[in-house]
Structure prediction request, 181 residues.
Amino acid sequence: MFEATTILGYKGEYNGKQYAIIGGDGQVTFGNCVLKGNATKIRTLYNDKILSGFAGSTADAFSLFDMFERILEGKKGELVRSVLEFSKQWRSDKYLRKLEAMMIVLNKDHIFILSGTGDVVEPEDGKIAAIGSGGNYALSAARALDRMAEIEPRVLVEESLKIAGELCIYTNTNIKILELA
Prediction:
């Protein structure tokens, strides 16, 4: 069984400017062994206007990325319409329903978690989402930092992922971050 990854997405305002940021660690684990410590699990989509990241099976995640990118192109980068169409296709396809991966997709206006069962979840606060083995650690840290400090969004994501990497054995602190500012 592969265990791996913490992905954290954040969107918000800082100093009057809108931000969308996604970060992820680089650990890929098989059983009790670390197979790789510097994997890249985040990327930009649709002419660098959408950020995305995955947790779960790498092969399954690449299938989801490809499908989602095709839908984004067809919907001209409209994230909400693309996410809804993606969910419809995911739930109606027997092959896709068996994929073991989750995704976070976001831009400056919206953030969504796409679950392994085809569900679309918009975070309750509308700005912070996390997935993967250390997702709950990163989410807790990000919520605390967001509520208690006036902190740059990139720093908030990086520090939250570091905390997750210190607590979750399937997450490391080899962090990569992408942002739309």
Remarks:
- The mean pLDDT is 91.
- The first helix runs from residue 58 to 74.
- Residues 1-174 form a domain with the Glutamine Phosphoribosylpyrophosphate, subunit 1, domain 1 fold (CATH 3.60.20.10).
- Residues 2 and 30 are 5 Å apart (CA to CA).
